[in-house]
TrEMBL record:
Database matches in CDD domains: AAT_like
Keyword check for Transferase: yes
Catalytic activity: L-histidinol phosphate + 2-oxoglutarate = 3-(imidazol-4-yl)-2-oxopropyl phosphate + L-glutamate
Annotated GO MF terms: transaminase activity
Organism for this UniProt entry: Salinivibrio costicola
Domain spans labelled Aminotransferase class I/classII large: 28-351
Family recorded in the similarity comment: Belongs to the class-II pyridoxal-phosphate-dependent aminotransferase family. Histidinol-phosphate aminotransferase subfamily.
SUPFAM superfamilies noted in UniProt: PLP-dependent transferases (SSF53383)
Protein name: histidinol-phosphate transaminase
Pathway in which the depicted protein is active: Amino-acid biosynthesis; L-histidine biosynthesis; L-histidine from 5-phospho-alpha-D-ribose 1-diphosphate: step 7/9
Domain of life: Bacteria
InterPro entries membership: Aminotrans_II_pyridoxalP_BS, Aminotransferase_I/II_large, HistidinolP_aminotransfase, PyrdxlP-dep_Trfase, PyrdxlP-dep_Trfase_major, PyrdxlP-dep_Trfase_small
Length: 362
């Protein structure tokens, strides 16, 4: 009875089952449903956390302006520090962006199908969400989007690049053209999977004041539990968000983990290399089994499976301690599931299970 009408009327972001946690103590669990890294963080991260736990100030609030973290982010991104700010996850960043830039009745366009939590975030603030849909093969047409934006004239456009769950990659040249043509639209580009595609338009923030890049440590850096993300944007946007950002919400352990992960970025790069090798092999093998795979970007693959068989396959994999993501809740994606890609050694048993299932259900 006390909720605002926008929260009351909106559909929540649909969470998948976290049943993998029920088997967390079992060594053979493969959690391939939320696109987390499938390996532990860098040993440097673990060592730094252990050192702090034994001698650090756990009774103090976190550093509210961690100069070392900003310096490391600046070095990693090759962007001056004044264009960067860190947050307690990229989801938290999305919430601050909504609070700063959304007014009741504002139109927000989302290139879809994509990560749905952003939709829930802006709707809770009173935004009106509409969608620009990729084609049936999840391809993107620049001219069609350009015409759409001229017609809809939204205040904000949300683009996930590479896109989750389709793996679609948008070229920096196309995004630059859009940002420079539609100067009255704020473009929020979610680069959660940047490390796996190395495609970015982050340098545009130096000249475009209508662009925000969102990134996370949850994927390639293997720090999902620590909830750390960051923004790359114009100084005006960074200063605006910082007005309402609660700096105490980024825990000391999270800050330490992020710094340590950046200082050992070679560990992350080696993992990314392994994932890309595994993804190429995995997609080829699935195609050989008669399954259609989509997308080049990200640490995941989107697989088309006949709807009647899909639920059986998901249940079968779960019985083998392999957890994948069902996209049946998304309109038009009833025949799709998403599988996070780990290392080659991790993905070979998944292929074995899928091959066995297909043979038994021919």
């Amino acid at each position: 009875m006390f909720s605002n009408k926008y929260v009351r009327e909106m559909k929540p972001y649909p969470l998948t089952s976290h049943r993998a946690w029920e088997r967390e103590g079992e060594e053979d669990v493969l959690k391939l449903d939320w696109n987390e890294a499938t390996i532990a963080p860098s040993p440097t991260v673990i060592s730094s956390i252990v050192d702090f736990l034994s001698s650090g100030r756990l009774n103090w609030y976190p550093d509210v302006n961690n100069a070392e973290l900003l310096k490391e982010l600046s070095y990693y991104c090759s962007i001056p520090e004044k264009y960067i700010q860190y947050f307690a996850s990229s989801d938290s960043l999305h919430e601050y962006l909504a609070k700063c830039f959304i007014e009741v009745g504002d139109r927000v366009s989302i290139i879809s199908p994509t990560y749905d939590n952003f939709r829930a975030t802006v709707e809770s603030c009173g935004a009106i969400v509409n969608y620009y849909y990729l084609d049936k093969s999840f391809n993107f047409c620049f001219e069609n989007l350009r015409d759409y934006l001229n017609h809809e004239n939204p205040k904000i456009v949300y683009i996930c690049n590479p896109n989750n769950p389709t793996g679609t990659i948008y070229s920096p040249e196309d995004l630059e053209a859009l940002a420079k043509e539609f100067i009255n639209i704020l473009f929020i580009v979610d680069e959660a999977y940047f490390e796996f595609a190395k495609v970015t338009c982050k340098d545009l923030v130096l000249s475009c004041g209508n662009l925000v890049i969102c990134r996370t440590f949850s994927k390639a850096f293997a720090l999902a539990s620590f909830r750390v993300g960051y923004a790359i944007a114009s100084t005006d946007i960074i200063e605006t968000i910082t007005k309402i950002r609660n700096p105490k919400n980024i825990s000391t352990l999270s800050q330490i983990a992020a710094i340590s992960a950046l200082q050992d970025s070679a560990y992350m790069e080696e993992y990314v290399k392994q994932v890309l090798t595994a993804k190429k092999y995995f997609d080829q093998e699935l195609s050989g089994l008669g399954l259609e795979c989509f997308g080049n970007g990200g640490n995941f693959t989107l697989v088309k499976v006949q709807q009647e068989l899909k639920k059986k396959l998901i249940d079968y994999l779960q019985s083998k301690n392999i957890f994948v993501r069902d996209y049946g809740h998304v309109n038009g994606m009833e025949n799709y599931l998403r599988i996070t890609i780990g290392t080659l050694d991790q993905m070979k048993p998944v292929l074995t299970c899928i091959a066995k299932f297909i043979k038994e259900n021919e």
